[in-house]
Design brief:
Blueprint: H1 2-17, H2 20-33, H3 38-74, H4 79-106
Helix pairs in contact: 1-3, 2-3
Length: about 110
């Protein structure tokens, strides 16, 4: 599990390191050398930036899914669990207050 998350993180770091500016530089060099036309360069930049965005979103989803899976398997107390417990506690506190009020009325 830890190894999978580590590998996903390394892949993501590599993709995110390839910024739009860096892509523009690489494509500009290709255009300057005459390897591709300006139009091809623009399309290439757009395609690479879009693909990088899609891969980043996919990576974030995979990491989130892995983390949720790990949390579920680890039987960790989650924020949802805490919210549910707080709601139950509030209900119990309300019941105790009601009982105390009834007791005060009874013993007057």
């Amino acid at each position: 599990m830890k190894e999978s998350v580590r590998k996903l993180g390394l892949i993501g770091a590599g993709l995110w390191a390839m910024t739009e500016d860096r892509v523009n530089e690489l494509v500009k060099d290709l255009v300057d050398r005459g390897d591709i036309s300006k139009e091809e360069g623009k399309r290439t930049v757009q395609d690479l930036v879009e693909e990088s965005r899609k891969q980043r979103i996919d990576l974030e989803k995979k990491i989130s899914d892995k983390m949720q899976d790990a949390i579920a398997k680890a039987d960790v107390f989650t924020r949802k669990d805490m919210n549910e417990l707080e709601a139950r506690l509030e209900t119990l506190e309300d019941e105790v207050r009601k009982m105390k009020n009834k007791e005060k009325m009874f013993f007057k």
